[in-house]
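Late entry, written up from scratch paper. The run itself happened at the end of the previous shift, but nothing got recorded in the book at the time, so transcribing now.
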Amino acid sequence: MKQDNLIIEKEYLTKEEFLEKNKALLKQHTMPIDENTEYISGCLGNKEDVKKANFPGVYVIIENNHVIYIGSALPNGRTIKVRFSEHLHGHPSHTKIIPYLIETRGISKEEAKRLIRTFEFIAFKYISLEYSLINNTPGLINSSGNYK
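Output as recorded:
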């Protein structure tokens, strides 16, 4: 079943459901971005939004208000901002989203790169949270270590 750009093949959580379902986990495992901010959010195609994610941690990618991917940037010099750049440019060894879009939508790599710029994100300052969130979120592209 197709809904706008998102192909609904599995159960997806909305952004609000994801935040509610993982509230305790997030509270226990994340560090505030600053004294008033638990996480940042924005659009992958907005350079100012992406610039704010210049820290290591865990991020969630959202299409049409559905959580489709959870990833991390380890504290080895790569930040979430760098990971977003890898996703946006379809870096072959660091992203599953572009190949997933090409295969499931039947679109070109350039179309997939344009589409991913419309996706939203949420970024948290923490590392080991990724696998707990993946296990707690149905319908992800990377739920089983690959996009199928």
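The radius of gyration is 14 Å.
(Scratch paper discarded after transcription.)
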